[in-house]
Amino acid sequence: MEIKTSIILPTYNERENIVELIDAIHKTLQPWDFDYELIVVDDNSPDGTAEAVRERYNGDGRVKLHVRTAGRGLATAIRYG
Predict the structure, then answer these.
(1) pTM reported for the whole predicted model
(2) Which of these, 53, 72, 55, lies nearest to 63 by C-alpha position?
(3) What is the percentage of the chain residues whose pLDDT exceeds 70?
């Protein structure tokens, strides 16, 4: 599958929101037939954001998780993604 669209989701302490957000994006994009990926760039959130993504989307090739421990921040997360 050739990826045509990448959506970057920079996160920090979003455990309570990330699963709902990703599910909403999947639901919104479902009517359109195109290839996309969701790139979650987490700044090593202490609340377990990355773990929530791993637990819910393990095996979903459309969701990619990157956890950063250095060079954190919104702008660098977007560039990283």
Answers:
(1) 0.85
(2) 53
(3) 83
Q: How far apart are CA 64 and CA 60, in angstroms?
A: 8
Tell me the β-bridge partners of 9: 40
What whole-number distance in Å separates Cα of residue 81 and Cα of residue 65? 10
Listed in sequence order, the residues at least 6 apart from 1 whose beta carbon sits closer than 8 Å to its beta carbon are 35, 61
Walk me through the domains of the chain, giving residue ranges and CATH numbers. 5-80 (3.90.550.10)
Q: pLDDT tens for residues 35-57?
A: 999 999 999 999 999 999 999 99
Instruction: Measure the CA–CA gap between 6 and 55, rounded to whole angstroms.
Output: 21
Q: Which amino acid is at 67?
A: V
